[in-house]
Design brief:
It contains 4 helices and no strands. The chain is mainly alpha-helical and about 130 residues long. This is DUF4345 domain-containing protein.
Length: about 130
């Protein structure tokens, strides 16, 4: 029983870490090549925000897939747990950054809105590929 709980926790944690690490690494590369402005300036260009939303959405799907892949049982439930964590993080991001003048409001809202369906899409893709 304890092993199953640890594996379940590990599956969700692995999906979460994958999304965070992939997102932060891509951000760092795009800052290093000067595609993105310095972080202190905020990011207001709609194309740059759309690019960030696109790759973060892709990484969210990857996180859902990985979580479902590593889940000891009930892969979609594990992906669902990750999706709720993503939604909570996304909503926290909307609230915390609302008045910080970092960029357009649609960007963090897009992250929050996409958290559940994109994570579940990743879980579904894993299940579909398994059949």
């Amino acid at each position: 029983m304890i092993v199953r709980i640890l594996r379940s926790t590990g599956a969700v944690l692995a999906g979460f870490v994958a999304v965070v690490v992939l997102s932060m690494a891509t951000d760092a590369v795009l800052h290093a090549v000067k595609y993105y402005p310095p972080e202190s300036e905020g990011m207001w260009d709609p194309v740059q925000n759309a690019v960030a939303l696109a790759y973060r959405s892709l990484f969210t799907v990857v996180g859902g897939w990985l979580t479902a892949r590593l889940a000891p049982t009930a892969p979609m439930i594990h992906a669902g747990v990750l999706s709720v964590l993503g939604l909570a993080g996304g909503l926290a991001g909307v609230i915390v950054t609302w008045n910080m003048n970092l960029g357009p409001h649609w960007y963090p809202i897009g992250l929050a809105v996409g958290a559940v369906p994109l994570t579940l899409l990743g879980g579904w893709l894993r299940m579909r590929g398994k059949a």
